[in-house]
Amino acid sequence: MTGVRQTIAGRRIAVCVGSGGVGKTTVAAALALDRALQGGRALVCTIDPARRLANALGLSALGNVESRVPEHKFAEAGLQPRGELHAMMLDVKRTWDDLVARNAPDPARRERILRNRLYQQMSSALAGSQEYMAMEKLYELATDRDYDLIVLDTPPTAHALDFLEAPDRILDFLGNETARTLLAPAIGAGKLGFRLAQLGGGYVAKTLARFTGQEALSDLGDFLQSFHGMYEGFKERAAAVRELLSRAEVGFVLVASPSQVAIDEALAFHERLHAESMPIAGIVANRVTPELWPDSAPLPDSVALRAALAAGEPGDGALAERLAATFAEHEALARAERQALQRLFAASAVPRAVVPRLESDVHDLAGLARLAEQLG
Amino acid sequence: MDPRTLLDRRLALVTGKGGVGKSTVSAALALVAARAGKRVLVCEVNASQERVAPLLGAPPAGTVIREARPGISTVNVTPPEAMREYGLMVLKFRTIYEAVFENRLVRYFLRAVPALAELVVLGKILNEVRLEDRGRPRWDLVVVDAPATGHAVQLLRVPSALLDTVPPGPLRRDAEWMQAMLVDPARTALAIVTLPEEMPVNEAIELDQQVRGLLGIHREALFVNAMPESRFSPAEEVRLEALARAADPLGAAARAARLQALRAGQARRYLARARAALDLPTAVLPLLPLATWGPEAVERIAASIARGGEEGRE
Lengths: 376, 314
What we know:
The complex is a heterodimer. By secondary structure, chain A is an alpha/beta fold. Chain A contains 18 helices and 8 strands. In chain A, 55% of the residues lie in helices and 12% in strands. Chain B is built from 13 helices and 10 strands. The longest helix of chain B is centred in the C-terminal third of the chain and has 29 residues, at 250-278.
């Protein structure tokens, strides 16, 4: 069976998805590094990399700028790339601002939106905003640049599916014609209450205002009004992003650790991607406890280990006890993880890789290269 | 750490990076409090899959408060249900609520108001804290199994954000009492959960800065979860290097021991980093060699919390 890495070798875009804390960023960086080593021009776009990984990739705090990982970083790791590795960190706010600037009909409108309090709140804090902008940035990179491979690391969402739903939800908000037509004409005129009355009699309008306060409605009206006419551009773009994600040149990589939570999320994601006809390139089971002893043979007890120690040092008996207990615990965990992962692998016939829990965090290019090897 | 400092509050907020064990710690805190005779409510926030009730050996509660075991009730607070309850509270009469809020256009419109979902969710939780039956608080303690870091900050920031932006009116009045409760250290305290690993510790440090700077909520405790035991002495660790190359079964057993020792050493370094950076009463909770996570795990974590963590065993 072909491995995850080989499958990605045939794609132009890879999107790593999975719940938080499973090592998505590291897998994403390893896939990009691998392509660079093979002679390609690769970019990894990360969201929130661990500091040492960011350092390894030469990433500074400056967001949204692609930068090439310098030669000396490879030399230090004993690697000779035949291609180039680039890396960047997504800046959600800047991506929003760029999107507004591109779609605004004139500078005045752009300024009005950038200054709006609700816009500022939305672009930095609205749930799903990060996910939406990750997709937006990916589209821009995929259409405006000539990388052989772009690997996108996705935000560590509480609900993995936010990633697919967020753009629709936010667009739903921006294109809320009901709210716009209700609120827009009232701006400046101070006749919000009057306008709202058309919603279903003055009674409904008054109770609604009691609920949110009139000023909140008016703020919202201003915001939606300033987006007026731009919605179509946003919507077209979102449709284009969706179309891009379903192309055969794209591969989603599901990353999971062998915990129940991570496996549940990966399964939910798999189902959703499948339903949306989005191409799944492989599953990476990360941080798996390696099995060191065959299932069929009984585990050695402390007596057997004590005999094998043979050095006759004082304290060998106690050490043998702890060795036996640690070994038994290790193997029990390894077997439980294997069983849990079977549930994930049974769901799909796509290529898979099982990456053992490494002895230390990956924090340099050499570590990433070793990880890439494991992705088969 | 003495868990009473946290559990004697009326509201305990539990947060941290995704996957660090917030639900387990929340369930265990509830267990410790209930055993001290308190009536406890545990709130999950918009959980796609409820975890707390099953961890306590009960079926999921859904959006209606339900007793999971004597002294502990749980609920999943979701925006649509919280919105409905809030609407009913503001409008007093069901028929009025239905006339206004069941209107399709209004529902669509309310979804578009930023932060309203967070406001009603937080409002429902905080309202449970102040509810009284016959002059006595309905709950001695409300534990919130809060969302992961970023979403938790977003949720807890809503009242102060509204106070910054919203002029006098019903929203502002709600924001005022909610904010007063959140920043009152006599009533409310926040606990951060982390793992002794790089990213969770980094995130805990950032979260702590945001809680202090942005939220102003009193931080009371740090839980470092899943801490592996330090089983082998430095001299033994050196010896394991050689033993790992020995013939099996000793070689395999030594390799397993070496992995355990490496993991424990790494965990000790991240624990030290978390302690140095956070300056909070810390409870170290054990890594449990359990494959399935359920009531047994919660019992063991609760026992560890009740004795103030595993400090003595380091």
